Structure formats: C-alpha cells, structure tokens
Amino acid sequence: MSILTTKHLGKVYEGKVPYTALNDINFSIEKGEFVAIMGPSGSGKSTLLNVISTIDHPTSGSVCIDSEDPHEMNDDQLAHFRRNTLGFVFQDFNLVHTLTVGENIMLPLTLEGVPVPEIKKRTAEVAALLGIEPLLSKRTFEISGGQAQRTAVARAVVTNPSLLLADEPTGNLDSKATKDVMELFRMLNETKNSTILMVTHDSFVASYCKRVLIIKDGQLYQEIVSDGNRRTFQQEIVDAMSLLGGEPHDLI
Ligand SMILES: Nc1ncnc2c1ncn2[C@@H]1O[C@H](COP(=O)(O)OP(=O)(O)OP(=O)(O)O)[C@@H](O)[C@H]1O
C-alpha cells in the first residue's frame, strides 16, 4: 500500500528572477518503508520535505498521503491531518521548554482532545518503547541532545502517524547520539512497521534506511536500494554522492 505519492511535483520560488527549486518529482513510498532523501546543498531537499509536510505549497503537481491530498484541505482539516497523519522530527528538536518531557510527548494528544486516561496510557507505552520513562518528569534543559531527540521522536509517534517525516534529525547530535537515534528509527521501522522519510547529508545516517533518493538541481537523479548490508550500502551512497561533486560535508 502506498503511503506517499508525488506526481509531477514542482516548486518555483517567485521573485525578481523566479527560481525552480523542484521540477517534475515523481515517486512513491510504500507502507513500512524507510527512505532517505539526499543531494548536494541547494538541490531542493528541504523544499521537497516542506512541500510533502504541508509547511509549503507546491506550484505544480500533487502530493498524496494516505489517499488524501493535504494541499486541497481547508485550514481545520489540515491542522487535524498534520496532527494525526503526519509525525515531524526536526534538527533542533522543537520541544516546548516550559513543559516537561512527558508533557511534550502528550502535547499532540492534548491538542486533539483525547481523553486523559487514554493520553496517559499512550504516553506510558511510547515512553517504554523508546526507553525514556526516567526522563518523563524532567525539564527540557535537564536532558542531553540525544535525549531531547528521543523525546521529539516519542512526541512524533504518540499519535501513530501514517508517515514520519524527519529533516536532518541528527544534524545537532554527536556521533554516539546519532547512532542511538538511528537505532531508534530502525526499531520503529522494524517493530512498528513505521513509514519514515528523512532528509540527511550524512551517509552514515542514510545507510540505516532501505532506500535513498538522490536529488540534484530539483530533480530526482538516482535511487539506491540497500542490499541489507549497512557498510556496503554506505559505501554505495558515498560513491554516488561523490560523483555529484558535492561539498565535503555532503560526503560525511
Ligand atoms: N524561500 C525561498 N525563496 C527563494 N529561493 C529559495 C527559497 N528557499 C529555498 N530557495 C532556493 O531553492 C533551492 C533549494 O533549496 P533547499 O533549501 O530546498 O535546498 P537543500 O537541498 O535543502 O539545501 P541544504 O542542503 O543546503 O539545506 C536553493 O537554491 C535555495 O536558494
């Protein structure tokens, strides 16, 4: 079953000189897939994720998520769709600093008006699954970056979204926390069959995925599918990226 399909997706930024950031992007993601989007700096990765996540609007083509086009919804429908069908994980965690870790995780359920006993049950379940029970009563300034991202992942999955979207989720983490967070995504993908789409610069991070889509100059350029061996997959990704002549940080 297809969770995400883009058809002839395009994005032109208007300005003195209009700029085509995305041009005729066509791809699908099936239920339970774990996919990375890579590409040189300025190739359109964030634009693509923003258009899929409804943060921005496409100027042509369509996005279909769970059989619906969110760009055709009114504001109320869209708010509900974003809270229930999509989960977001950002580079800078985006936690609410006036709330505890537990309250951050509960937030999407609170906003949806889920009954309190159900909120408590689901928060406890996700905290146990992600190993953050001891953190629940802590404030956000009392936890590490890796723990903050774990909390953000918990908040993103507590609603059981159809599609989990992540923009450079390890961009602010050291190598140990990066590995921890990637193991978490892998666990969610393997045990909960979560469908995950992430943007990353990092070939190590991308090697946890099962498929990598490389974009160049706003167009789909190449697709690499994992053979199941993370090391050889990472090497394939590095080779493909180096052919693009990306910045050194694109090849890490
Ligand atoms: N709001 C905007 N207005 C005009 N041009 C934009 C805007 N946002 C992005 N662009 C341009 O669109 C292109 C794609 O940008 P985008 O941020 O999607 O690239 P990226 O692949 O995510 O880059 P990076 O890896 O550096 O984050 C770039 O050339 C950028 O300058």
From TrEMBL:
Pfam families: ABC_tran. Residues 4-242 form the ABC transporter domain. This is ABC transporter ATP-binding protein. SUPFAM superfamilies: P-loop containing nucleoside triphosphate hydrolases. The keyword Transmembrane helix does not apply. GO terms for cellular component: membrane protein complex. Belongs to the ABC transporter superfamily. It comes from the Bacteria. The lineage of its organism: Bacteria, Bacillati, Bacillota, Clostridia, Lachnospirales. GO terms for molecular function: ATP binding; ATP hydrolysis activity; transmembrane transporter activity. Keywords: ATP-binding, Nucleotide-binding, Transport. InterPro entries: AAA+_ATPase, ABC_transporter-like_ATP-bd, MacB-like_ATP-bd, P-loop_NTPase.
